[in-house]
Every structure is written in C-alpha cells, then in structure tokens.
Design brief:
2 copies of one chain form a homodimer. With about 110 residues, chain A is of the alpha+beta class. The first copy, chain A, contains 5 helices and 3 strands; from the N terminus they run ααβααββα. In chain A, strands 1-3-2 form a 3-stranded antiparallel β-sheet.
DNA sequence: ATAACAAATGAATGATTGTTCATGTATATT
DNA sequence: AATATACATGAACAATCATTCATTTGTTAT
C-alpha cells in the first residue's frame, strides 16, 4: 500500500479535519439514530438539545458538515431537517470508537 | 446509538485530530507497507524520503504520532525505527480512503 | 579528536479555526 | 401588523498548530 496521490491525501485530510471536532462528532452521532439502517432526520433544535451546543454553534457546524457533504438538509416550514449523507461516516466513527475504547483497556 | 460520554468524545476528537494532517497521513501510509499483516519498520530517513517532508517536520510529526500512541520507535545505532502500534490505524485510513474515492465517482 | 551522519529540539511565525455575541431572515400564529 | 419561533450569518477573538530555520545531541567512522 503506497502513499496515495496528493489529491487523495488532500481529500482524506479534509474529511478527517471535518470529523475531528467534538461538536461535530456529537452532531454526527445524534444523526446516526438508535436503530441499524434507518436514516434519521432531526431538526436543529433537536440536535441542539442532544448535543448541548449553543444554537449558533450547532448551526455553524451543521453548515461545515453540509459543505463537506457529510450531511444533507431539507426545509419544511419553520424547521430544517438534517440527516446523514453517507454510510462511511458511521464506519469512521465505529473505527475511532473501537480504538479509544480498547486503549482504555490497556491501562 | 446514543452520543458517547464526554471522555470518549474527547478521545475520539483527539485521535481524529492526530490523523487529520497530510504529513502525518503520509507517514502512516509509509508505515503500512506493501504486504498485508506484516509490521513494517522504517527509519526516519526512509520516511523523510517517501513522504518528501523535511527532516525536521518529519521528526516533529513522528513525535506527535508517538505521543498519541499510534506509532512506536526502537533505536538501533544511529537509526531510529518507527512502526505502527495499532491495527485501527489501517482501518481508519481504509474507511477514509474509500469515502474520498467514492465521492470522486459521483462527479 | 574530528568529521560525518541520523535524528531531535526549540523558538518563531503565519494561518487556520472553534466559539461567542449580536443580529438578520424566514415562517407561523394571534 | 405584531410577536414568537427556528435557523442562519457575520464579525471578532483566542487558541491551536503545521512548518521552517537554526542548533544540538547522539552515534559511527577515520
């Protein structure tokens, strides 16, 4: 497995940057939902409550996630519903979660 | 899947932060090696050459990766051999790689 | 000893970015 | 029309961090 091209590395760095913020991680988790494959939709208010971020902060980070195409949005009346774009997000969180949990076991 | 505890989120953020830098991504790739399960060891000079980072930069980032326990080192004479600590690193890179490659296909 | 090589370190800097505060816009309700 | 709710936006600030340059430490060879 040799080092990928500059372009690929650049995109990988970008995706990891997007994912490497606690507020955004919480938002992504809240959009994963409880059940397996269903695609959860949540309003900004619901996300704000679950993540206990400020409304402004959540909105800013939702924009970041949307611009990076990790989530999408749908407007309906006063509400905006956000949901995940991509199954890779779940895999990413799972791998990282496993890593940090197993690290704890070593100590 | 509810939002993990603050501690877990914090550690996840930290690991993702470590991984979200192009220099460090290249270093990790260069330590993955060609074959499947074997654990590759490489000197700083080799890593410098493969990643085309400066010697100082590589050394700095190797320290970051080592402090985060993603890699380990072994000294032998003038050389220091670095290698991966953890199989999760490979999984992480694979998931992210798949994501960015599939994204390209959509456009 | 001294020269040459391998790697680490420390300071300095420029850029990026997470967060807050304040405000703006759109939609619904009375 | 006025008010309330839901969400977005822009400016501003503090903090973090990747990178470079210069120097230093440790090791081998002459």
């Amino acid at each position: 497995m040799s080092i990928p091209s500059y372009e690929i590395i650049d995109k990988m760095e970008n995706m990891l940057n997007i994912a490497s913020d606690s507020t955004r991680i919480k938002i992504l988790y809240s959009l994963l939902g409880e059940n397996e494959e269903e695609n959860i939709e949540k309003t900004v208010s619901e996300i704000v409550e679950e993540t206990s971020a400020s409304q402004s902060l959540a909105s800013h980070q939702l924009k970041v996630l949307k611009d990076a195409r990790l989530i999408k949005s749908r407007k309906q009346g006063k509400n905006v519903f956000y949901s995940l774009c991509d199954r890779h997000v779940k895999l990413l969180l799972e791998v990282v979660y496993e890593h940090v949990v197993e690290e704890d076991e070593d100590e």
